[in-house]
Amino acid sequence: PQITTISGEVAGMYAVQDIPYVKITKREEEGEKITEVEPKYSTVGMILQVLPRIVGEDLVQMSILPIVAELLGYETFKVDTILQKLPILSRRVAPTNITVRSGEPIVIGGLLSKKKTKVESRFPILSALPVVGRLFTSTYEKEENVNILITVKPHILKPREIRGRTKKIFAFRYALAEEVASQISEIISPQGMIEINPKEAPPNSVLVRDNEDQMKVIQDVLTKIGTYEQQRREKIFLLRYSSPEPTKKILLSLLSSRGSIKIDKKTNSLVVEDGAYQV
């Protein structure tokens, strides 16, 4: 992705997802016990913030802050008789300060993590047999070391490159800004730029810079793909530690006016239907 900013102003790229959870607190007021249930979010994904300063005719000084956050799992706490499940996150940060020439790329590494996955191995045909099939199935845990590399290449825009371009912020009600940015990156002109969740813009939005003719094409595409019909999603949430009825009441406040939640009592799960952003 490409982002544009002014010398001395922070620019950022946010490829993130909000993980919802519920915070339960109990307090006593005038002898009455009150239980408060508050929807909260933890952000996971990748954030890249850059503070550039032009320090010469062709030199750029940059303060770069990459942050990678991952969801490791959940930990359950008990508040009186209520079980509360809170997310456990892993965050890695690699702040960097460097001065480079315009157009010269730099690579940032050191964002190391260990990824554990469960792998199931099955023997063809025999593993599908009832009862004895388990004897021909094995499960083991695979651990991988992941090193994330980030490449940043600053480019000082000349007046002739800026002339004729317009900018517009598009905020989405149902679509995910990250998915939209990926789709319109195929139709943006070589001089155009996209910024995901720009500073001082509404949540879940993109800022697009391009010439006027191409901007009309981009706006037409966004109008079509941003509708509820195009972005409708359905997801099943299995509940292990809570009942579906109270959980449904909490989640309803997070949905759009067109969203819905169905309860499947047989599997103790919720079927949520709404736009991609809400789901």
Descriptive report:
By secondary structure, this protein is mainly beta. The protein folds into 3 domains: 11-152, no CATH class; 159-226, Ribosomal Protein S8, Chain: A, domain 1; 232-275, Ribosomal Protein S8, Chain: A, domain 1, CATH 3.30.1370. The chain is built from 5 helices and 13 strands. A hairpin with a 2-residue loop joins strand 3 and strand 4. The chain starts with 10 loop residues before the first strand and ends with a strand.
Strand content: over 45%
The ordered H/E elements are EEEEEEEHEHEEHHEHEE
Mean pLDDT: 82
The total of beta strands comes to 13
Poorly predicted ranges? none
**First CA to last CA: what distance?**
25 Å
- Cα Rg: 24 Å
Structural class: mainly beta
Task: Output the number of helix runs.
Answer: 5
Helix content: 10-25%
Major pleated sheet = 5 strands, antiparallel
Please state the overall shape, judged from the principal axes of the Cα atoms.
globular
Keywords: Membrane, Signal
Subcellular location: Membrane
Protein name: Type II/III secretion system secretin-like domain-containing protein
InterPro entries: Bact_Secretion_Sys_Channel, NolW-like_sf, T2SS/T3SS_dom
Name a few traits of the molecule.
single chain, mainly beta, Ribosomal Protein S8, Chain: A, domain 1, 3 domains, 5-stranded antiparallel beta sheet, 3-stranded antiparallel beta sheet, 5 helices, 13 strands, 14% helix, 54% strand, globular, Bact_Secretion_Sys_Channel, signal
